[in-house]
Amino acid sequence: MSENRLSSSEFPAASHQDGDAASPRRRGSRKSAGGVTLRDVAQLAGVAPITASRALNTPSAVSPKVLQKVREAVEKTGYVPNLLAGGLASNKSRLVAVVVPTVIGPVFQEIVHTLTETLAAAGYQVMLGQSGYENSREDALLEAIIGRRPDGVVLTGIMRSAEARKRLLASGIPVVETWDLTPTPIDMLVGFSHEAIGREVARYLHQRGRKKVAVVGGRDERSQRRMNAFAQECVALGMHEGRAPLPMHHVTAPTTLGQGRQGLAELLQAQPDLDAIFCSSDLLALGVMIEAQSRGIAIPEQLAVVGFGDLEFSRDLQPRLTTVRIDGTGIGQRAARFIIDRAAGIEVAERVVDVGFSIIARDSA
Amino acid sequence: MSENRLSSSEFPAASHQDGDAASPRRRGSRKSAGGVTLRDVAQLAGVAPITASRALNTPSAVSPKVLQKVREAVEKTGYVPNLLAGGLASNKSRLVAVVVPTVIGPVFQEIVHTLTETLAAAGYQVMLGQSGYENSREDALLEAIIGRRPDGVVLTGIMRSAEARKRLLASGIPVVETWDLTPTPIDMLVGFSHEAIGREVARYLHQRGRKKVAVVGGRDERSQRRMNAFAQECVALGMHEGRAPLPMHHVTAPTTLGQGRQGLAELLQAQPDLDAIFCSSDLLALGVMIEAQSRGIAIPEQLAVVGFGDLEFSRDLQPRLTTVRIDGTGIGQRAARFIIDRAAGIEVAERVVDVGFSIIARDSA
DNA sequence: GTGAAAGCGCTAACAG
DNA sequence: CTGTTAGCGCTTTCAC
């Protein structure tokens, strides 16, 4: 059994003179990477490594004199702490894994951006992972994440497999799920109800007297849930005969403007007298608007259009797009706070937060 | 929190009994993080830790029998290697830092996406950093990056300060700069010439008989360089009298559709007879198109519009947008390859690659 | 093919 | 406030 303890005779006591023992290389052992280490800084400052460490991490715990000497040594040597080593020793990696289906497309940008910024300000780095819209790569991704021992994981609209969820939970890493209100959160949750959105949009259109509604939506699960709730509520409100299903055009995520154009074209073919369309993204909505325009269909007079996401451009379209706004920044900030607090040992009271949504009523509906 | 560490008594020593010396905890020293370690796996498999390590990292270097036993032990314990520890010992972090001005906005999505995917496939994780469009936060970001000892850094359109560049170079980390062809690359470079784009677009419009051109562009440096080269070439081609400066509307990055609308409005006020506009992003171009439309200006008949970026939606606009295409995927792949090769000890022959660009001629110009 | 020893660079724990 | 000691969990080196 390897007892890899170092006999003290190999370590000349650091306090008294040690002649050429200052050389960090003993015997013919290991090649050092060549960088400046804390040891070098400490030596230059004339203190023990741990003191130099304290000067850098808890300046208030050392004397001003030592603090200054260490800082000078850092300056002189260009020392940059090795966070890998620090993380290993302290069991805090200061790394947070952020997983999104994809960074392509505008949907998750706001969350990724906010997390990166907020966490960076608190001394954390973001490790980005893309899960894709299929579940196949989740396992490999999870392994890569857990292997880094992050101080937290933020999951956005993903991690379906029960196996993966169990593993994450077992790892003991704080997990924040976002972008949905799942019934059985792994750990913490910041999201909103896709069903509520579908219902609310149906009521919105109903109030405005629309009678012939249809949907263009992504095939991903969350989009489906919005769409189905929307359809159900439409039936409940008498906007649609329960017999035939509500006209729906399904597209593959991530959604595109082109899909929106095509969607309207196909829906119109089946049902030329549509007077309202709910799209599962603003990009789809823009496509619908452009297609309508090129066919001489007036928006909102003849056709009402509602999007989802409230992208930056939506307010500047002609007509301005009515859409559903999700506060991605707010979600990102709360998720970051959850993890930061947890790392600081603060137990969060509210582990599930519904950030809600709002329908931004503009001109298109 | 479940302390799911397996005490050695739960793992019968497979080789020979070694009393309580097998206990990894000596004295009242350090608390272990609670995870399964390689040591646990090795013990369960009845081999030395180093052998278990080899079974996982270089399976071909151990006997099939050992390989199987180790794999079973991994399975049974749910062991996930601690990459922090591995990185510290091997001096390879398998981490690549990717720095972009911001992930908000469509410009850098393709690069971030491709890098994340390509590097993940090769066993690397992406650490995301946002530098903003000002240079102020570069230092802190750099410190955070170098501290992780990444195996590579990909810089996209940033790192202006000479100080920061020097520090990166001194750190010895392979660096790939992208999105530009700087005269003095830090290390490796995959980019294109913003000046060449400006000139080429000017010629394109000249060939199509445009005479009164203007520009809507971001204030960031790269955009400026495109715009200035464009203006210069316009003068050279006689499209603009050298006396007055070319009409330019400057906007703050990241660019938006709204800025495009406003840009056209203001340019038109000063120069009502414009017949062509070069925008520094497709989003700006879309704004220009929408504004033109709402004013009854026909595109391309009365006004030609050229964008930059060839966003996914541009081909589906009405009229379809003529724009400049940059192969973000190609850039990402090359950048990833540079770093992977370098980590493998392969010296790359071509350290500077010009990926060029192409003008996608569609209907708007 | 396998293993013992010796750290990678840092911090927690416990003294003084 | 400062230092000593003992590792964090892994891999490199060198020996068998």
Automatic annotation (TrEMBL), chains A, B:
Q: Metal-binding: is it a keyword of this entry?
A: no
For region Disordered, the annotated ranges are 1-35
Listed GO MF terms:
DNA-binding transcription factor activity; transcription cis-regulatory region binding
Q: Which SMART domains match?
A: HTH_LACI (SM00354)
* Ranges of biased composition (kind: Polar residues): 1-10
**Swiss-Prot/TrEMBL keywords:** DNA-binding, Transcription, Transcription regulation
Q: Which residues form the HTH lacI-type domain?
A: 36-90
Q: Name one Pfam family in it.
A: LacI
PANTHER family the record matches: LACI-RELATED TRANSCRIPTIONAL REPRESSOR, TRANSCRIPTIONAL REGULATOR
This one is known as LacI family transcription regulator protein
